[in-house]
Structure prediction request, 393 residues.
Amino acid sequence: MQLLTPGSKLQRTWSDFIDALYAPVGQDFNALYWLYRLSSALLDTIIPCRHDSRRMRINGFASRLRPLIPCAGITLTLLTTASYFNTFRDTAVIKKGKSETLHTSIVVWLAFNVLSHYLYCIYKSPGIVISPKSEMAANINASGAKRNDDVIKIGGCCFIQSRVKNNEEKKRCNFYKHCTTNVKIDESTQNAVHHPMPNDTFCHKCEINRPARSRHCRVCKVCVLEYDHHCPWINGCIGYNNYRNFVLLIFYIMLGCWYGACLLVLDFYVMMREYFQLHGFKLMGPQYGTGILDLPPPWTLLKDYRNKGKIDDDVILRAVFPFLLFVSICMFVFLLDHLLSIAKGFTTLEKKTRPDRNDVVNPFDLGIRKNFERVFGKSLINIIIPFPTHKKW
Prediction:
């Protein structure tokens, strides 16, 4: 879809925005007004039909927006990595006499792991239960999975969907079903409440018997083996076949953000102290009024970039360091939650739906060590380097 077609509403609104942005200094520039006009024009371009209900418009817009969310995550990763090579390699490494080869190698290794596991999560099948109904269906609405006789197209990034082969999914499902049916319940816990149940269940939406621990995803419109959750950041489900990549993705994002924050913390402190000594301290910022970091608004950054050909290093530091610190804390909380779930043999959904009783027994709990080996495997090299590893099926 070409958004800025000549004569379209969005193209006219964009031209008016550029004219207002470079208007003489005496004329006021209302940022909220132009944000509203651009958003309205963009919405009308993507969803041109004006006779649908508001709910249909929102659902249609959301279905078109989902494939762009992973693109935003990949873009943030690339921009953060690029900030090291364009700015911080010189200011935080070379000028301080640190080893450029060592730090650059670490940054490349961390970025490579993040991007690799991100793409694995997006395009690797979570483990789908194939039903006769799904094989006969030509397709399901735009927010769900598109199917034909041999391939299921689901999720994806930037309108490049993940292609999952039916035969491989059937083999994986049969293998997983064989593993779950062999789960033995201790005689001493037969009278206890078992969660999750080790029995097959029936999905009324897919109209198929599915293995234990499988759940139906209302977004992807499929049943997923060992369903953990649906993640909007990968535009797909996290399940039996890609959970390992998802946890490693969180781990390497946290590790990369911690590394970057530790590398920049001293420079950030010195820069903010000098900035407040020069301009004075104000809670909403002494110069731009955008908060304690006093970051320039986007239109100011655009003007400075047009005039100078670059963005000031101090502005990049004020933006990147708090971002790295915030993301690292969030990822640490998420990672800790998943590690605790793995140690107890639960998925995220199973942990949330666990009955609040003292006699609950998890028949799939193999012990802490075997639970971690079941998810990550026994090879440490496959955790350090993102080789394309997978389970038997």
User: Anything to note?
Assistant: Residues 136-144 have pLDDT under 50 and may be disordered.
